DNA sequence: ATACTTAGTATGGAAAACGATACCATTATT
DNA sequence: AATAATGGTATCGTTTTCCATACTAAGTAT
C-alpha cells in the first residue's frame, strides 16, 4: 500500500516549493490561455483546416453561438495563438490560422485526443 | 503562402469527417472529465503528493472555496480519476489518490506544464 | 466546561460564461 | 426593387460556476 504511492509520480516535474497559487502554477497559467469550453476545440479545428474562415468554423461547431465564437477568436488572437486576416471584399472574407506559437500547442491537443481514444472509455 | 498550410498539421490525427459536434469530438470529450478551472490543478497536486488529505489540498490551493473543492473532488471521484478513503476517526481523516485511470492523465498535465515553461512567455 | 481540529454540508448570492435575437454594411444576384 | 451572403456588433437574459458565511459532529487538549 505504501510502495504504490511512488510509482505513478515518475516523470512528473515537481514544483520547487508547494506553490500552486493562481499566479505561479504552470498548469493554471497554461489554462489561462487555452482553457474554457471552446478554445482547444477551436485550435484543433483551425489546425485541421490550416486556414479557416469564420463561417466555416461556425458551421463545424454547430452548437456555438456566433457571439461566443467571435469572443473566443478575439481572445486567441490577443494571446498570440491565432492570427486574423480580413480581406477588403464584400461580402467580407476573414481567415484565421495558427501562429507559430499556436502551433506549439498542438502536442497538448494531441495528448488530450490520445487520452480520450485510449483511456476515456474506462471511466464509464 | 500555400506551402506553409501543410507544415504545422503533421502528426495531428484528423477526424474522418468534419465532426466536431459536442458528442463526437475527442478533445471535447476529454475536457468533460478534466476541464474546468480546478480539475487539472487538483490532479497535479494529488499526483505530486501521491496521497492528499482534504485540508492539505485546501491549503495548497489557497484561493479555492471549500465547497468548490468538495464538488471538484466528488466529480473526479465519480468519473473514476481519484479515489476517496475516509477513516472512521475523529476529527475525520480523508485521503485522496489517483486511480489507475487517473494516472493515465499525467501526460496531459506534463505536456501542458512543458508548454507553459517553454512557450507561454512568447505570448506576452 | 471550553476551545480546537477535520472534513465536510447548507444556503444564498455574485460573477463569469454562454446563448438567442435583432441589427448592420456592402456587394452580387434575381 | 428585393433578396441573399459574410462577418460581424449590441443588447439582454439565462445558465453555470464559483465564493462567502454559517453551521455540524466527534474526539482531543487545556
From TrEMBL, chains A, B:
One Pfam family matching this protein: HxlR
Put simply, this protein is called: Transcriptional regulator
Presence of the UniProt keyword Transmembrane helix in the record:
no
Q: Which organism is it from?
A: Pedobacter gandavensis
Q: Which PANTHER family does its entry note?
A: TRANSCRIPTIONAL REGULATOR, MARR FAMILY
| SUPFAM superfamilies in alphabetical order | Winged helix' DNA-binding domain
Does this entry carry the keyword Transcription? Answer: yes
Keyword entries, A-Z: DNA-binding, Transcription, Transcription regulation
Amino acid at each position: 500500500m505504501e510502495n504504490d504511492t511512488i510509482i505513478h509520480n515518475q516523470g512528473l516535474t515537481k514544483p520547487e516549493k508547494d506553490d500552486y497559487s493562481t499566479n505561479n502554477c504552470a498548469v493554471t497559467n497554461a489554462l489561462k490561455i487555452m482553457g474554457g469550453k471552446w478554445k482547444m476545440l477551436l485550435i484543433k479545428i483551425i489546425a485541421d483546416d490550416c486556414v479557416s474562415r469564420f463561417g466555416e468554423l461556425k458551421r463545424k461547431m454547430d452548437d456555438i453561438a456566433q457571439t461566443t465564437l467571435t469572443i473566443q477568436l478575439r481572445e486567441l488572437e490577443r494571446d498570440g495563438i491565432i492570427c486574423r486576416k480580413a480581406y477588403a471584399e464584400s461580402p467580407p472574407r476573414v481567415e484565421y490560422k495558427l501562429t507559430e506559437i499556436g502551433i506549439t500547442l498542438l502536442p497538448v491537443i494531441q495528448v488530450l485526443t490520445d487520452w480520450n481514444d485510449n483511456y476515456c472509455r474506462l471511466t464509464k
